[in-house]
Specification:
31% of the residues lie in helices and 26% in strands. Helix 1 (16-22) crosses helix 10. It has 11 helices and 25 strands. It starts with 6 loop residues before the first strand and ends with a helix.
Length: 371
């Protein structure tokens, strides 16, 4: 129940930035703010550890935040649900169950999903790599078929596709599954948005283990037992994983809060909607037309402290802080063979040390935000 004069902050989604804010919910409460988290899931998986969850390097409890427990610890309310629409004029939200929720300030960190509607058969026969919980479900299904010949296809040769393919190989070794793994990339090379050297290292790692890479492969249809390409080739697949990039829920487009052709929540340098100053956001679901950013988790993590400060300021009458994204960011891929692929700008390297560093950074992040 909201006390008279108490302001309401609604956190829509349990993404990385909102986990940071939940850990500081008591500070908001002391300032006279009621915090409400709305999330369709009680657990938020850390995306950086998802491929390791698939291959068994990590157990589920090591890779996820308990959002309900974090909320209770910070005296925030937890509502299991999802926002369907925003009425910015009335400062109200409509949830998927039809219920309404009013706010003084709302922040969105709902993440992204893999678009499954653009490829025929994807909805019925493909497994999107997001949400991350899909990877753990797939692991259990594959292990239940131990010692059987299984063929795998991964559609998309970006960072997620490369990591999933490499860790499927590791999982197949564990389960004794003899079969094939094929990465299907529509562009000229895997990791096409990164330096050529990164593509070469990733290709070498995958191909040395017998993983086939198809470039320029346009998918026509995904079926129960294979992926049909426009060339007429059918890639055999008992399990097809979809890693074709991130799409944003239609909330913002439908509510008139996105910019141009983008479906994301439009924000300015203060992580705030340029017209409706009661609306903030971070992570994959937002778009700053003046400073577009890649959809990588590091930016949600970097945005978190600024988002928290600006929400606090908006609720208490303080001054907002600009988010200044770093020009270069660190990306380390888990290749599934005991090595990591280190990329920062044009600096590219590969080795066991890189995987060790990734594990140290990821586990430290989890420990810090659970404390």
């Amino acid at each position: 129940m909201t006390n008279k004069g108490q302001k309401i902050l609604v956190l829509a989604g349990g993404g990385h930035a909102h986990v940071y804010i939940l850990a500081r919910a008591l500070e908001l409460q002391k300032a006279g703010v009621r915090v409400i988290l709305v999330s369709p899931e009680e657990y938020q998986y850390y995306s950086g550890m998802g491929p390791g969850l698939l291959s068994g390097i990590y157990q589920p409890a090591q890779t996820r935040f308990d959002l309900r427990s974090l909320s209770e610890r910070g005296c925030a309310d937890f509502i299991k649900g999802a926002v369907k629409a925003v009425n910015p004029e009335e400062k109200s939200l409509t949830l998927e169950d039809g219920s309404g929720l009013s706010y003084d300030i709302v922040s969105f960190n709902v993440g992204g999903r893999v678009e499954i509607g653009k490829i025929s058969g994807a909805r019925e026969f493909a497994r999107p790599v997001k949400p991350i919980s899909n990877l753990f479900k797939a692991r259990n299904e594959i292990l239940a078929l131990a010692r059987k010949k299984l063929n795998f296809a991964v559609v998309g040769g970006g960072p997620a596709g490369v990591e999933v393919a490499g860790n499927l190989w590791r999982l197949s070794k564990e389960g004794g599954n003899e079969g094939s793994i094929t990465v299907i990339e529509g562009g000229e090379r895997i990791l096409g948005a990164f330096p050529q050297k990164a593509s070469e290292y990733a290709r070498s790692s995958l191909e040395k283990r017998g993983i086939r890479i198809v470039t320029g492969g346009r998918v026509k249809e995904i079926g129960k037992s294979g992926v049909s390409l426009e060339t007429g080739e059918v890639v055999p697949a008992d399990f097809t994983f979809l890693a074709t990039g991130v799409s944003v829920p239609p909330i913002f487009k439908n509510s008139g809060l996105s910019a141009g052709s983008s479906e994301g929540l439009e924000i300015d340098d203060f992580l705030r909607h340029p017209k409706y100053h009661e609306i903030f956001g971070g992570g994959d679901c937002v778009t700053n037309p003046g400073h577009p950013l890649p959809k990588v988790g590091v930016y949600a993590v970097r945005q978190a402290p600024v988002l928290y400060r600006n929400l606090f300021a908006a609720l208490t009458g303080g001054e907002l802080t600009r988010f200044r994204p770093q020009k270069k960011y660190l990306l380390i891929l888990n290749l599934g063979d005991g090595t990591g692929l280190f990329v920062r700008g044009n600096l590219v390297a590969r080795g066991e040390w890189a995987l060790w560093l990734k594990n140290r950074l990821d586990t430290s992040f989890m420990a810090k935000h659970r404390a």
